[in-house]
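Why do we care about 3D structure at all? Because function follows from shape, and shape follows, mostly, from sequence. That is the central idea of this module. The next example makes it concrete: a single protein chain, its amino acid sequence, and then its structure expressed as tokens.
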Amino acid sequence: QVQLVESGGGLVQPGASLRLSCVASGPSISSYTMGWFRQAPGEERDFVATISRNGESIIYDVSVKGRFTISRDNGKNTVYLQMDSLRREDTAVYYCAAGDSGLATMDVKRYAYWGRGTQVTVSS
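And the structure:
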């Protein structure tokens, strides 16, 4: 069973950058879909980005496209989310997730394994 641990969150000013990391333990993530989701207080968990098992297929939510970049290093069992030009509305707990299909997907139900999240706060 895949276990996921996120890191890299913090408090930053608008316009700043952060890079989130998600390290997996257990089996290799090379066959898994990997995704990032986020949840703001009082809101549902929303899709942010997903990457297929071989990294060739990537999908972003429209709200982060052009500002965020998802990547993976299967050799390090790690997935990254580079976040640039951060906005106040990006404030949320960010979760890493893994799914068995291997295909890029926005569907939260396709992800069986979840980390505990890392807080990102964008404020001046």
